[in-house]
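Backbones bend. We report:
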Amino acid sequence: MEVKDYKSRIFLFGHPTSASSLLKQMLANHPQLDVLVDSFQEAYAIGPEKLERRDNGDAYYSEARRQANRVETYQKAFDRLHMSMTRAEQQGKRPFFTEDAYVVFRPDVTSANLDLDLPLTTIPTPVIMTSKTMPTNYRCPLRASNTPRSSDSPLFTATFPIFHPITEGLGIHTIESRSPNANPTVLPDAFLTSMTPICLIRHPARTFPSLYRAAHLNLHGSEFSIMASLRWCKLLVDWYNVTTGTKPIVLDETDLIHEPATITKLCRALSLDESGLQTSGDAMPQAEIGEQDAMTPATNATIQTSNGAEPSPKRDDEIDIDEEVKGWRKEFGVDTAETIKNLVVGAMHDYSYLRQRAIK
C-alpha cells in the first residue's frame, strides 16, 4: 500500500543538542514510520558548497571524512533524501526526516540575522533544482542511467548538476529584493510544503553549554553564533505559518522528558499509534544508540536504559540563569561563563516565542 497523503511526511527541525536523538530513538522502530538517516550535514560542512564558518575549517575533520565528502552537494543530498522518501512511501510507511535548521538556511538569511559581514559573492547560495524550478530550455546531460525518471511524488527524483545563481546568471533574490515571506532555506518550497513540520527546542541555558562542551568551537567565532541560536527555528515556524498556513508542531525537550502527556499529544497530532513508541521501559542496545546529541545524563537515561533512572526534578523552564552561571564559572572560567550567559540571554526572546507555541 502506497501512502498518497504527502502531508504524512514528517520534517523534524531543531538546533544542536535539542534532544532530537531522543525523539528519533523513541520513534525508530515505529511500524508506521521510516526514520531516515539522510542529511545535509556533509554538504554544509565539507562539500564544494560548504556554508560552515568554522574557524579552523577542514582541519577539524579527518582526512578520510573530507575525501569521502569532498564532492557532496546539496543537490546530491536532496536527491538521496527524496529517493528515500519515495521508497518509504512505496512501502506504505511515512518518511520521518530530521535536520538542524541552520544546516539548510540560505547564507544571506543567516548573515542578515546575525549581522555577519559575509558578502553573497563569498558564500554562494546552493540551488536545488526540481521539476518546478528547472529552466524550460534546460537539458540534463548528467542523468544517471539508474536514476528514476518519475515517481508518484510531487517532486522528481533525477539528479541535476548544481547551479550557483551568482555565477550562472539564473537570477538570485538578494537580501534587499527577497520578499519578507520568502523561503529562508535552500530547500524547495514544494518539498517543505509536502511535510508536516515539527520544531524541537530546548532552553538555551541547557543547549549552549552542552554545545560548547561537544563542538570544540571558538565562542566568539561565526559558527558558534550560528549553531547557538534558535532564530532559524523561529524563522522556519513563521514561514510555515505565514506562507503556507500550516501551524508547525512545537515541542520543548523539557515537556518531552517531564510530561508523559506530551508524547501522547504528539502521536495524536501525527495520527500515530502510541503503542509503536520505544519507551523508557525498553532497553536500547549500545550499538543501536549511535551518535548522540550532547544531552544530559538524565535525558539519555529515559530512553537508553531500563534501570529506573529518573530525570532531574527541575524542568528547564524553572532555570535560574544567574544560578547556572555560577556552575559555568567553575567549569569553564569567568570569561567563558559570561560569554555563554550573554548568548543565552540573547536567545531567550526566540526561545520564549517558540515556547509559547509548544504542545502543553
Q: What stands out?
A: Residues 280 and 310 are 10 Å apart (CA to CA). The chain has 16 helices and five strands.
